[in-house]
Amino acid sequence: MPGIMGLGIAVLIIFVIISNTIKILKEYERGVIFTLGRVEMEGGVKGPGLIILLPVIQKMARVSLRTVTMDVPSQDVITKDNVTVKVNAVVYFRVMDARRAVIEVEDFYYATSQIAQTTLRSVLGQSTLDDLLGKRDEINIELQKIIDLQTEPWGVKVTVVEVKNVDLPESMQRAIARQAEAERERRAKVISAEGEYQAAQKLADAAKIIQTEPAALQLRYLQSMLAMGGDKNTTTIFPIPIDLIKPFMKAYRDSGE
Known about the structure:
This protein is of the alpha+beta class. The chain has helices at residues 2-21, 98-103, 108-125, 129-134, 136-151, 170-212, 214-230, 242-256; strands at 22-25, 29-35, 45-46, 49-52, 58-64, 68-78, 84-95, 156-167. The protein folds into three domains: 10-64, no CATH class; 68-172, Tetrahydropterin Synthase, Chain A (2-Layer Sandwich); 207-257, no CATH class.
C-alpha cells in the first residue's frame, strides 16, 4: 500500500513537471519567455507550436495576436456648445509586439480601454453638436490617431475607432426637430418663390412676343376658348379687349362735357 501511494505521488509530480515544461501555442498566440525573471532580446518570444520550458527557471506569458473588439462604455460628454450627450464607441486593436505588450504595461486590454474612454470625452468635448452629428468620419479618424499614438509604446496597434450611438436629451431632440421643420419650410418657400419668378419671366417673354405679333394674341384667345369648351362648363366668358371699348368711353366723356 505505501508503495502504491509513493508511485502515485511520483506520477503526479512527473505530470506537474511535464505540464509546466511542455506548452503548445496556437497559430494566433505568442509566448513571452521569462528566464529567471528576464526576457531575452533574442528568442524571448516564441510560437506558435510546441514550446519546451525549463522547470522552475522559465515561465511563459501567453499573448493573443488576434484583433480585439472592445466596446467603450457610454460616456457623458459636454460638447463645445454646452450640450450634454451620452456617447459610446467601439475600438478595434491588436498586439503587434508581444514582448512590449507584456513588459511595458500591466494589462494592455484594460489600459487601452481607459485610454479610449478618456480620449473619447476629450475629443468630443472639443467638438460642437453639429460636428458630432455631421462629421462622424472625421471624428473617428482623429480618435483613432490619438488612441493609437498612446498605445504604440505598448506594442498595441489601434486600427479602427467608431462612434456608435449619440443619445441626445429629449429637449434637444425637440429643438432639432423644430429646426429641421423650419428649414424644410424655408426651402419650400424659396422653391415656390423661385417658381413664381420663373413663371413671371416666361409670361414677360410671352407678352413681348405677342406684342410684336398681333395675330398671336388672337390665336391665344381662340386656344383659351377651346380649353374652356373642353371642360363642359355651363358658363362661358368672352373677354373683350379694352381697345374696342375705348371709343365708346371717349364719346361718353365728350357728351358729358
